[in-house]
Amino acid sequence: MTTIKHPEFVAAPLLVLTYGVCRIVDGFDGERGPGPAWTIGHLAFLAALALFVVIFRHMRRLIGPRARITAVVATLGALALFGQFSVDVVAGFVADDHEAMAMWTRGIRTLPGVATVIYDFGPYLFYVGQLVLVVQLALHRHVKAWTPVLVLADLSMPFIDKDLIPVGAVLMVVSFLPLALRAREVGPARETALV
């Protein structure tokens, strides 16, 4: 019987799916946040980002030392997004309505370096780093050649329309499932060498 050896490869996309669905539900009243859907969705995405850091580490181990820089880039991007979503969660807690929440967030963005690091530049490292890691996995034949195409489609969804995030999350589950099933096929000696 096939077992999932590393559930984070499946859990992270499912948490992204949760965020995407909560985001759609949150918009039913014409505006997003504050409220339960806003908070639950953002907390789900924060949990996904924490799992992505673990995922990037596993990907680096599978690929080898050449993936170190890419894994660091992807992890920095995840941390930038973590900062952005943390701001959103706090804004949802401290604000009484959507306008107050937006004002609070704008205030944070005006702090030196914040806009660049967690909004304008940092998050893109997550997407680029993740895609490059999957391309490297494909080149090393750890995943099928079509997997990077699927990951690119997934990563493109929020840029096309954020309501497509759940669709992207499903694509991510499909693309990550082989990794979840074989992530521990690297022997202990090789894993130690790649740490």
Please characterize this protein's 3D structure.
The protein is mainly α. The chain has one domain (9-184). The chain has nine helices and no strands. Helix 2 (36-63) packs antiparallel against helix 3, helix 3 (68-94) crosses helix 4 and helix 3 (68-94) runs antiparallel to helix 6. It starts with 7 loop residues before the first helix and ends with a helix. The relative contact order is 0.17. Mean pLDDT is 91; it is low at 185-195.
What descriptive keywords fit this protein?
195 residues, mainly alpha, 9 helices, 77% helix, globular
Write the layout of secondary structure elements.
Layout: H1 8-26, H2 36-63, H3 68-94, H4 98-109, H5 114-120, H6 122-139, H7 147-160, H8 165-182, H9 188-194
Helix pairs in contact: 1-2, 1-8, 2-3, 2-6, 3-4, 3-6, 6-7, 7-8
